Amino acid sequence: MRYFLASSLPSLSLRSLGLAMQRCRNTVRIIQWTIILFYLVLLVIPAFMALPPRQAHILNNLALFAQFVFWGIWWPLVILSMLLFGRLWCGIFCPEGALSEWASRKVQLNRTIPRWLKWRGWPSTAFVLITIYGQLISVYDYAQATLLILGGSTVGAMIVGFFFGRGTRVWCRYLCPVSGVFNLLSRLSPISFKTDAKAWHQYDTHVPPAPQCPPMINIRQLNGISACHMCGRCAGYRNAIALEPRSCNEEIIKYSVQKSNIWEMRLLLYGMIGVAIGAFTWTVNPWFIQFKLTLATWLVERNILWPLSATAPWWMLTNYPTNNDTFNWLDGLCITVYILSTGLIFGGFLSLILSFVTFLIHKGAILKQHLAQAFLPLAATSLFLGLTETTIKLLQYNGIIFWWLGGLRALILAGASLWSLHLGARVLAHYEPSMGQWIASLCLFSLSVVPIITVWLLMFWIW
Q1: Residue 364 main-chain phi, psi, to 5 deg
Q2: Of 77, 301, 314, 339, whose CB count within 10 A is highest?
């Protein structure tokens, strides 16, 4: 009896929280508009200020403070929140989502969503392009670049809401550059809204109107949160939908068989792992520097000098002469080639390993796409460690020393690796291979983890 009460308390508390989110919509709107105001102030005002002087700090300069908030606190915590609370950020706190939905309700044209806009490849393509473009214009370092990237995305969200919304979040569902990333990361969350099919069918009183789901998902079959924005609007509907705890592995092992698709796999392997690693490591990789010097020498020897000139405007390539921070055309080419090559190398290697595994077990593309999701803990760790590198750098510039950082990073990498291996073993067992097939496949999968760990070891302890 005591065990039953202890195990049921978290579920009851989460159910109450879900119902509170449904009832307190006005409070949620106040939170959303407060965040929007804070977001716009930090996004717009610093972009029109002078560049911070060298002696400026994050506490005495608004531009530096805004950069620290966006790239040192905001985005690392958003990634972490996906792992802890699912897409709660999307449903409650995201200014883009709230503004897109507002535009779709207040000034919409109510046009039908065209087929081309529903193409599943948009989130993957947008993530890669935005990642590369952000590196080319140094989005982590300059307010103008932040305004261009984040502000442009916000304007795009509102325009899409104006044309196609009808009270929903079309931008968030189909076009947001990070929606695919959030979709995948949220599968590791220990909580989710779930629909009790039995309670749904047994509901025999007057059926209330169905709540409008912002990301346009079928709430009747809500058994995972990869697309759910955790806004709570459907909580309690037909006494069947509730916020409940679950295993962090449940959605990947149990439901991802039906949800897997090739674009998600590409985004995970080539984007979240490969391209992200390239974007985070090019500034410290000595091989990148050698590659650029070799090309520069080749150009000078042939008297081809225009690629070495820093004549591009700041919105194409970083160009801030007063800070001695400029990119020439060769820099832009090398950065782009490096990031894309890293994405192709890592993604291609991991895809090849997964193909060998599917060949061993004879299950084809379904197993490959399903097993790829076992890399999610490592992909999440790569994004989090890469983004917090900016956090550490900004704080170190202000005199804060993190003597414990190396040990913590090692612990996080080790934990993520073991989690991915555990998921890989569970996914492989789901397809009931022979013992020999399972061992051989798990060894291959373990081999694929090595390059990901190696590159972070190089970045943090060798380069």
Answers
A1: 75, -155
A2: 339
Cα atoms in the 13 Å half-sphere on the side-chain side of 198: 0
Six token digits for residue 336: 């782009």
**Nearest-10 Cα torsion for 115, 121, 125, 126:** 50
Lowest average pLDDT, out of 257-261, 379-383, 430-434, 458-462, goes to 257-261
- Phi-psi map region of 319: left, alpha, beta (phi>0 left; psi -120 to 50 alpha): beta
> What sign results for the dihedral spanned by CA atoms 146, 151, 154, 159?
negative
Distance CA 463, CA 461 (A): 6
| Residue 178 in tokens | 């990070």
Percent of the residues in the chain that have a pLDDT greater than 90, as a whole number: 67
> pTM (2 decimals)?
0.92
Q: CA 11 to CA 21: how far, in whole Å? A: 15
Question: Could you count the other beta carbons within 10 Å of the beta carbon of residue 204?
Answer: 6
Phi first, then psi, for residue 431 (nearest 5°) are -95, 5
Instruction: Let me know: does 374 contact 427? Beta carbons within 8 Å.
Output: yes
Q: Which residues pair with 192 in a beta bridge?
A: 244
Q: What span, in angstroms and rounded, lies between the C-alpha atoms of 261 and 370?
A: 9
pLDDT at 259: 64
What single letter denotes the amino acid at residue 386?
G
Q: Which residues pair with 244 in a beta bridge?
A: 192
Residue 378 · residue 416 · CB < 8 Å? yes
pLDDT tens figures, 269-305: 999 999 999 999 999 999 999 999 999 999 999 999 9
Which of these, 289, 278, 279, lies nearest to 331 by C-alpha position?
289
Sign of CA dihedral 142, 143, 144, 149: positive
Q: 428-458 pLDDT, tens per residue?
A: 998 888 899 999 999 999 999 999 999 999 9
**Do the strands 325-326 and 241-245 form a parallel or antiparallel pair, or are they unpaired?**
unpaired
